[in-house]
Amino acid sequence: MDWLLIIKSLLLLGGLGLTLGLVLLVASQKLSVKVDEREAKIRSALPGANCGACGYPGCDGYATAIVAGKAPLNACSVGGPKVAQKIGEIMGQDVSAAEPRVAVLICRGGKNEAPYRFQYRGAGNCRQAALLLGGPKACIWGCVGFGDCVNVCPVKAITIGENRLPVIDEKRCIGCGKCVAECPKNTLILIPRTKLVYLACVSHDRGKAVKDACSVGCIACGLCVKVCPVSALRMERNLPVMDFEKCIDCGICVHKCPTRSFIDRAPGRPKASINPRCTGCGECIKVCQFKAIEGEPGKHHRVIPEKCIGCGQCVLVCTVKAIDLVGALGHSVKKV
Contact 79/43 with Cβ under 8 angstroms? Predict the structure, then answer.
């Protein structure tokens, strides 16, 4: 046995291994990507829902984007103000919390309100059903009702009710928007949690065509646009479009709509009450669209409770502060 040859071979292999090891060591030092410690801190501060509502691929992607300066600090709708504040502290920046949002259904045409045109016997999902003549319902604009939104909700906040319409548990909803993206009919939207009034119809038909397809659909009469005290509504393609920034949630459109196509999320509305400071100027009578105030000029006026909807318009015009809203704790009138 040639021991000299064996020793030379071992030395050659050892030297080659040492050389490759040194090359790899240098490469790892030169090519390594340093992870910003702030990224790990932000990731631990995030709720871990990985819902994608922030617009980035999960919480890891969002944390990376924040450190890179490519994402706002307040985009986590699940974490809300508390998480936004923590991220601001980590980044050393002041941050204003984004207003939490909630998903709402803007269609009321269930099986009892919107008749079926034909019996659908296909795949039980909304997208495929919608491809067939717009779906089986007479209203081709409305919710199909097969529950695709239920399947994609990461927190199980949506169920299908007896009327074949999605029912959203607002307490569980995190406002991620996955149901909104999944809906082929655009009958789900995200609104600020503080928003009270919104239109619940998506039909672009009008008049008789709407009534034939759905008993609760907007008929494009435009009355809501006319009665809105702050011009927060405008008609587009036979539908009222609401400017949420202008809207003061007075609820006038809700009560004036002949088809009750608007939804009021307020758990309770107050009633106006006129106190002894009233001078009988009559300005409240002029502004009330429901004839809920009566009285002679120069004398103390009174409110007719069964007619008052608690919109608060009378409060806004009373210069002597003679009108109060009572009966709904925590309710306040939004000023124009």
Answer: no
Closest residue by Cα to residue 61 from 77, 83, 42, 78: 42
User: What is the DSSP code string of 19-71?
Assistant: HHHHHHHHHHHHH--PPPHHHHHHHHHS------TTSSSHHHHHHHHHHTT-S
**Residue 240 phi, psi dihedral angles, 5° rounding:** -70, 130
Chain centroid offset of residue 85 CA: 22
> What value does the CA radius of gyration of the chain take, rounded to a whole number of Å?
30
Q: Which of 118, 137, 145 is nearest to 205 (CA)?
A: 137
- Domains in the chain: ranges and CATH: 38-91 (1.10.15.40), 100-193 (3.30.70.20), 195-266 (3.30.70.20), 271-326 (3.30.70.20)
- The residue with tokens 């669209």 is 289
Find out whether 67 and 42 touch, Cβ atoms under 8 Å. Answer: yes
Q: From 315, 320, 319, 321, select the one nearest 335 (Cα to Cα).
A: 315
Determine the Cα angle at 108 with ends 104 and 110, to 5°: 120
Q: Does 196 or 23 have the greater pLDDT score?
A: 196
Q: For the whole prediction, is pTM greater than 0.85? A: no
Which pLDDT tens digit goes with each residue over 84-128?
A: 888 888 888 887 767 788 999 999 999 899 999 888 888 888 999
Length of the chain in terms of residues written: 336
